[in-house]
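Sample pair:
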Amino acid sequence: MKSNQTHSGLNIDKAEFTQLVSDLSKTELLELVYQLHHENRNYSEKIFQHRKQAEIFNKSTKVYKSAFNESLIPRLILNRNGMILAINCKASAYFKKTSASLTGSNIRELIHQDSVNEINYFISSTNYFRESQLAISLNNGKAIVLQADSGKMKPGAFSFICKEITTDNSADVSWEGSQRFHRQLFEMLNGFAFCKIIYKNNQAIDFKYLLVNKAYEQLTGLTGVTGKRVSKLIPGIFETSPEVLETYARVARTGIPEHFEAYIDQLQLWFIISAYSPMPDHFVAVLDVINDRKAIESKLRQKENLYLSVINAMSEGVLLHNKDGFITECNEAACNLLHCTPKDLIGQKSLARNNNMFNENGTPVSTAERPALKALRTKQAVKNIILGLQLPDKDEFSWFNINAIPLVCSDKTECRFVVVTFTDITVQKLLKDQLKKANNQMDLILNVTRDSVLLMDAQLNLQLANKSALKWLNINIDTCTDKHISSILSKEYYSQILGYLQSTFNNSANYDFEDFSNGIWTTNHIYPIFDHEQKVKSIALFSRDITLKKEALDSLAESERKFKAIADYSASWEAWFDNNLDLLWMNPGCTKFTGYTPEEYMNSEDLISMLIPADEIETTRQHFF
């Protein structure tokens, strides 16, 4: 047995209680005694407070009843059914009865039949018009004015001040003046109808109009409705709009007011209706026509559907975050891009459901810096952010370009929601990384070569230069990029290559040429670079310093000239052959030995074959080469 069990509520006899106590340890018994003592003390305090409050209430009630009965102002209190809940002596004198005999009776039994409809409406409209008044005629021939009191009463009770109409005060409040005042208030309402539910076998089947104002007739187009059933005035209404009767019957039965909208097909009208019950099986409907509003709503829905269609047709993912940061809407593309369903996204705070979101450098993105939450916090747009996501079914990162646009209130104090759009750029990023790698390799190659390389656009503005070119031209790439090459190259060199450059752009031709300027020999190659449409996009100029080579060739040519000059005066026969034993040069000594001049040998293959027969050519080649 557990010692913390509540024992005060146990229903056991003395023997059972003795057995129960004997099973308890001393500690458990002390706990039980303490618990019983504590509960008894709380119960005593509650009884004391209850008695004290009852005394105060009784005293207050006596004081209120005494003040109410002895008041010099005639007062009475009615409920929604018109029953007199209380009436003081001053007011009961108008009815020529005692307060006790009037309490519990219905005021409709005490007034003239002509005033019954007016009193019905007056009681039902008291919720709307405090301090309004109505003049009524009593069965005893007197006329009084009922003025609604603005004082607070319990629900369903209404306080009125009574005043008898006499010849002395008719100038202040007359029967016609009161009727006119009340009727004006009545007509000021929108459409007003006081109706009674009609039952058959305890089932609501129809309702009858007891009282309507002009606005009701003008709004609905119905006239002469008082005393008629709605099913006769609007045939088929309960088939096309069954909710109307259902709602009115529920209000009349429960007394709980309801507010609803209904479309009456027979009238081609939309209504907004407030219904309440002033008495059992009756209801009051206050309505207005909202066709214009419904037309606007319909246009808004059409635009909304159009926007949703556009959004769902977009290839970009679209998410809508509310002001608390949670995703409330997403389009189909968002689910396709993130490999998920709308259920996976709705209610999340980020498109990274597993919280794996990374920057391009590989560092994780904090929650506060995620585009949607950052836009929500700063109330500023976050654009073109490249982030990587670890999608559940992929090992590699998927990369997205993300934009977050906040919708801020006009006073800029609150962000209502944030629209996030994103596209998958994984392929583009891979190509970009590959291009970057290729550019790095190209830069490595260009900077290793000793050739000077210049890349220029169609306007001959410098786009790229390798280290050799920078050293050759003595320039800084940071200060010369996008400058015209005429300001970078020497005037002499620029004037010599300008024609080639222009021809390359115009004719897409390659050019190879040597140039000597400023004491330097260069060999130059100009190539066009095409775009995807095979149009010349830019030009590459490769230049190599061949000054030393030129000097070496000139020196070799000078030595050759000197040798030939000496050989021309030599008595011996000298000849030069290449490795194929083709004659390159022969001195005049050949004439002395063969009778043929060097020119004849150079122009005749037959003479050469006489010198070296065909069967000895290979032996001769091996001997010399």
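Confidence is low (pLDDT under 50) at residues 1-10, 167-186.
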